[in-house]
Amino acid sequence: MPKTTPFEKYFDRYEEWFLHYSPVYKSELEAVRRHLPEDGRGIEIGVGSGLFAQPLNIRNGLEPSKQMGKLALKRGVNIIKGVAEDLPIENDFYDYALMVTTICFLDDVPQSIREAKRILKPGGRLIIGLVDRDSPIGKLYQKYQSENVFYRDAVFYTTQEVVEFMKQAGFKDFSFTQTVFNMLDEIREPEQVKEGYGEGSFVVISAENGK
Length: 211
Description:
Layout: H1 5-9, H2 11-20, H3 22-33, E1 42-45, E2 60-62, H4 66-74, E3 78-80, E4 94-100, H5 109-119, E5 120-131, H6 136-143, H7 159-169, E6 171-179, E7 194-195, E8 202-209
Parallel strand pairs: 1-2, 1-4, 2-3, 4-5
Antiparallel strand pairs: 5-8, 6-7, 6-8
Protein backbone atom coordinates (compact mmCIF):
# COMPACT_ATOMS: atom_id res chain seq x y z
CA MET A 1 0.00 0.00 0.00
CA PRO A 2 1.32 3.49 -0.80
CA LYS A 3 2.55 5.40 2.27
CA THR A 4 0.18 8.33 1.77
CA THR A 5 -1.34 8.73 5.25
CA PRO A 6 1.15 11.31 6.61
CA PHE A 7 0.92 13.29 3.38
CA GLU A 8 -2.86 13.41 3.61
CA LYS A 9 -2.82 14.43 7.27
CA TYR A 10 0.23 16.71 7.47
CA PHE A 11 0.40 18.24 3.98
CA ASP A 12 0.79 21.71 5.50
CA ARG A 13 3.91 20.59 7.39
CA TYR A 14 5.33 19.24 4.15
CA GLU A 15 5.02 22.67 2.53
CA GLU A 16 6.44 24.41 5.61
CA TRP A 17 9.63 22.31 5.47
CA PHE A 18 10.52 23.68 2.04
CA LEU A 19 9.88 27.24 3.19
CA HIS A 20 11.98 26.79 6.33
CA TYR A 21 14.84 25.14 4.45
CA SER A 22 14.55 27.23 1.30
CA PRO A 23 18.34 27.22 0.55
CA VAL A 24 18.34 23.41 0.77
CA TYR A 25 15.34 23.22 -1.54
CA LYS A 26 17.02 25.54 -4.06
CA SER A 27 20.19 23.45 -3.93
CA GLU A 28 18.23 20.27 -4.65
CA LEU A 29 16.32 21.96 -7.47
CA GLU A 30 19.55 22.95 -9.19
CA ALA A 31 21.03 19.45 -8.78
CA VAL A 32 17.95 18.01 -10.51
CA ARG A 33 17.76 20.71 -13.18
CA ARG A 34 21.18 19.79 -14.56
CA HIS A 35 19.86 16.40 -15.66
CA LEU A 36 16.70 17.52 -17.42
CA PRO A 37 16.60 17.58 -21.23
CA GLU A 38 15.93 20.94 -22.86
CA ASP A 39 12.70 19.69 -24.39
CA GLY A 40 10.51 16.61 -24.59
CA ARG A 41 7.55 15.24 -22.67
CA GLY A 42 8.25 14.58 -19.00
CA ILE A 43 6.54 13.31 -15.87
CA GLU A 44 7.36 13.41 -12.18
CA ILE A 45 6.49 10.15 -10.44
CA GLY A 46 5.53 10.94 -6.86
CA VAL A 47 5.03 14.60 -7.69
CA GLY A 48 3.86 15.52 -4.20
CA SER A 49 2.64 19.11 -4.07
CA GLY A 50 4.44 20.08 -7.28
CA LEU A 51 7.33 21.92 -5.62
CA PHE A 52 9.79 20.40 -8.07
CA ALA A 53 7.57 19.91 -11.11
CA GLN A 54 6.39 23.53 -11.28
CA PRO A 55 9.79 25.32 -11.33
CA LEU A 56 11.27 22.58 -13.52
CA ASN A 57 8.42 23.03 -16.01
CA ILE A 58 7.24 19.42 -15.76
CA ARG A 59 3.57 19.46 -16.71
CA ASN A 60 2.55 15.94 -15.66
CA GLY A 61 2.75 14.24 -12.29
CA LEU A 62 1.72 10.90 -10.82
CA GLU A 63 0.58 11.09 -7.19
CA PRO A 64 -1.32 8.66 -4.92
CA SER A 65 -2.07 11.28 -2.22
CA LYS A 66 -5.28 13.22 -2.78
CA GLN A 67 -4.18 16.24 -0.71
CA MET A 68 -0.77 16.43 -2.38
CA GLY A 69 -2.39 16.13 -5.79
CA LYS A 70 -4.70 19.07 -5.02
CA LEU A 71 -1.72 21.28 -4.16
CA ALA A 72 0.16 20.22 -7.31
CA LEU A 73 -2.92 20.90 -9.41
CA LYS A 74 -2.99 24.46 -8.07
CA ARG A 75 0.61 24.79 -9.24
CA GLY A 76 -0.40 23.89 -12.77
CA VAL A 77 0.57 20.23 -12.78
CA ASN A 78 -1.70 17.73 -14.53
CA ILE A 79 -2.28 14.98 -11.96
CA ILE A 80 -2.48 11.27 -12.75
CA LYS A 81 -3.75 9.25 -9.78
CA GLY A 82 -1.81 6.04 -9.25
CA VAL A 83 1.24 4.34 -7.77
CA ALA A 84 4.76 3.96 -9.12
CA GLU A 85 4.60 0.16 -9.09
CA ASP A 86 1.68 0.11 -11.57
CA LEU A 87 1.73 3.23 -13.71
CA PRO A 88 -1.53 3.89 -15.60
CA ILE A 89 0.45 5.08 -18.61
CA GLU A 90 1.07 3.52 -22.01
CA ASN A 91 4.42 2.15 -23.15
CA ASP A 92 7.13 4.38 -24.66
CA PHE A 93 5.21 7.57 -23.89
CA TYR A 94 7.60 9.93 -22.07
CA ASP A 95 11.02 11.33 -22.94
CA TYR A 96 12.04 11.55 -19.30
CA ALA A 97 10.72 10.68 -15.85
CA LEU A 98 11.70 12.19 -12.53
CA MET A 99 11.46 10.86 -8.98
CA VAL A 100 12.57 13.15 -6.13
CA THR A 101 12.72 11.68 -2.59
CA THR A 102 10.12 9.16 -3.77
CA ILE A 103 12.23 5.99 -3.63
CA CYS A 104 12.16 5.75 0.17
CA PHE A 105 8.33 5.67 0.24
CA LEU A 106 7.81 2.93 -2.37
CA ASP A 107 6.66 -0.59 -1.58
CA ASP A 108 8.67 -2.16 -4.41
CA VAL A 109 11.57 -0.09 -5.75
CA PRO A 110 12.75 -2.53 -8.48
CA GLN A 111 9.19 -2.85 -9.84
CA SER A 112 8.78 0.94 -9.83
CA ILE A 113 11.98 1.37 -11.81
CA ARG A 114 10.87 -1.28 -14.31
CA GLU A 115 7.58 0.57 -14.70
CA ALA A 116 9.42 3.85 -15.26
CA LYS A 117 11.48 2.13 -17.97
CA ARG A 118 8.33 0.81 -19.61
CA ILE A 119 6.76 4.25 -20.03
CA LEU A 120 9.97 5.82 -21.31
CA LYS A 121 10.82 6.01 -24.99
CA PRO A 122 13.99 4.23 -26.13
CA GLY A 123 16.81 6.55 -25.11
CA GLY A 124 14.59 8.35 -22.60
CA ARG A 125 16.06 9.16 -19.21
CA LEU A 126 15.07 8.30 -15.66
CA ILE A 127 16.21 10.87 -13.09
CA ILE A 128 16.13 9.95 -9.41
CA GLY A 129 16.87 12.33 -6.53
CA LEU A 130 17.41 10.85 -3.07
CA VAL A 131 18.90 11.40 0.34
CA ASP A 132 21.69 8.83 0.47
CA ARG A 133 21.27 6.48 3.45
CA ASP A 134 24.98 6.65 4.36
CA SER A 135 25.25 10.45 4.10
CA PRO A 136 25.21 12.75 7.17
CA ILE A 137 21.59 13.79 6.55
CA GLY A 138 20.59 10.21 5.76
CA LYS A 139 22.05 9.03 9.08
CA LEU A 140 20.32 11.87 10.93
CA TYR A 141 16.95 10.99 9.36
CA GLN A 142 17.40 7.36 10.39
CA LYS A 143 18.40 8.30 13.94
CA TYR A 144 15.22 10.30 14.47
CA GLN A 145 13.06 8.32 12.05
CA SER A 146 10.46 7.30 14.64
CA GLU A 147 9.87 10.98 15.50
CA ASN A 148 9.27 12.16 11.94
CA VAL A 149 5.71 11.84 10.65
CA PHE A 150 6.90 11.54 7.04
CA TYR A 151 9.94 9.28 7.40
CA ARG A 152 8.58 6.98 10.12
CA ASP A 153 7.83 4.20 7.62
CA ALA A 154 10.41 5.15 4.99
CA VAL A 155 13.18 2.85 3.78
CA PHE A 156 16.39 4.64 2.89
CA TYR A 157 18.81 3.46 0.19
CA THR A 158 22.36 4.23 -0.80
CA THR A 159 23.14 5.69 -4.20
CA GLN A 160 24.85 2.47 -5.23
CA GLU A 161 21.84 0.36 -4.29
CA VAL A 162 19.58 2.49 -6.50
CA VAL A 163 22.12 2.34 -9.33
CA GLU A 164 22.06 -1.46 -9.10
CA PHE A 165 18.25 -1.48 -9.29
CA MET A 166 18.44 0.71 -12.39
CA LYS A 167 21.11 -1.44 -14.04
CA GLN A 168 19.05 -4.57 -13.40
CA ALA A 169 16.11 -2.89 -15.14
CA GLY A 170 18.24 -2.13 -18.19
CA PHE A 171 19.33 1.48 -17.69
CA LYS A 172 22.75 2.63 -18.86
CA ASP A 173 24.89 5.76 -19.36
CA PHE A 174 24.76 7.00 -15.77
CA SER A 175 25.52 10.51 -14.56
CA PHE A 176 25.41 12.01 -11.07
CA THR A 177 25.17 15.32 -9.27
CA GLN A 178 25.32 15.98 -5.54
CA THR A 179 24.64 18.83 -3.14
CA VAL A 180 23.78 19.55 0.54
CA PHE A 181 27.25 19.23 2.03
CA ASN A 182 26.37 20.61 5.47
CA MET A 183 23.74 19.94 8.09
CA LEU A 184 20.36 21.45 7.26
CA ASP A 185 20.32 24.11 10.00
CA GLU A 186 23.78 25.31 8.96
CA ILE A 187 22.78 26.07 5.36
CA ARG A 188 21.99 29.77 4.89
CA GLU A 189 22.29 30.00 1.10
CA PRO A 190 22.08 27.54 -1.80
CA GLU A 191 25.04 25.18 -1.85
CA GLN A 192 27.18 24.27 -4.82
CA VAL A 193 26.25 21.37 -7.08
CA LYS A 194 29.06 18.97 -7.94
CA GLU A 195 29.30 15.99 -10.26
CA GLY A 196 29.53 12.51 -8.77
CA TYR A 197 28.37 11.25 -5.40
CA GLY A 198 29.80 10.31 -2.01
CA GLU A 199 30.11 13.78 -0.49
CA GLY A 200 26.71 15.45 -0.62
CA SER A 201 23.68 14.12 1.25
CA PHE A 202 21.36 14.76 -1.71
CA VAL A 203 22.25 12.84 -4.87
CA VAL A 204 20.68 12.86 -8.31
CA ILE A 205 21.11 9.83 -10.57
CA SER A 206 20.30 9.99 -14.27
CA ALA A 207 20.42 7.10 -16.72
CA GLU A 208 19.27 6.22 -20.23
CA ASN A 209 16.60 3.70 -21.08
CA GLY A 210 18.59 1.04 -22.90
CA LYS A 211 15.68 -0.46 -24.86
